[in-house]
TrEMBL record:
The lineage of its organism: Eukaryota, Viridiplantae, Chlorophyta, core chlorophytes, Chlorophyceae. InterPro entries: CID_dom, ENTH_VHS. Residues 14-131 form the CID domain. It comes from the Eukaryota. Transmembrane segments: none annotated. This is CID domain-containing protein. It comes from Haematococcus lacustris (Green alga).
Length: 133
């Protein structure tokens, strides 16, 4: 059984991952989210809260939020039986972040993340087309 964590533990791990996105920090947040997938609403709320706290125009932090969401989506799709849980819940959120990054220097990162989702089969073609807009 996975170790228990509180909402504050999630916020601390998420804050660390957003300040400096490293592979290990992204993995910690994703594992917390997947291990306790029944708390998916808390995870989504934490991501939304983090997005609201970002200064307008801070594209690097928006990119890091996209990386965190992508890692959660990818790991949950691989490990969970209920593949819809995070996929559908995070789709509007991811679409919002992609929209915020649309005019930034990080467009290449956005395209790469969406291509990874397409290759892994996380989203269907019509959802991918919507995300690519």
């Amino acid at each position: 059984m996975a170790a228990e964590w509180s909402d504050s533990d999630l916020h601390i791990a998420l804050d660390r991952a957003l300040r400096k996105a490293s592979d290990s920090r992204l993995q910690v947040v994703a594992e917390m989210a997947v291990d306790h997938h029944q708390k998916y609403k808390h995870v989504h709320a934490a991501l939304e809260r983090a997005l609201r706290k970002v200064a307008p125009g801070d594209a690097a932090t928006y990119r890091n939020i996209l990386f965190v969401a992508s890692r959660i989506l990818t790991l949950s799709y691989k490990q969970l039986q209920e593949k819809e849980r995070y996929r559908e819940r995070l789709r509007p959120f991811v679409q919002k972040v992609l929209g915020l990054l649309a005019t930034s220097e990080y467009q290449v990162h956005c395209a790469r993340v969406v291509a990874i989702w397409a290759k892994a089969g996380i989203y269907k073609d019509e959802a991918l087309a919507e995300l690519r807009k």
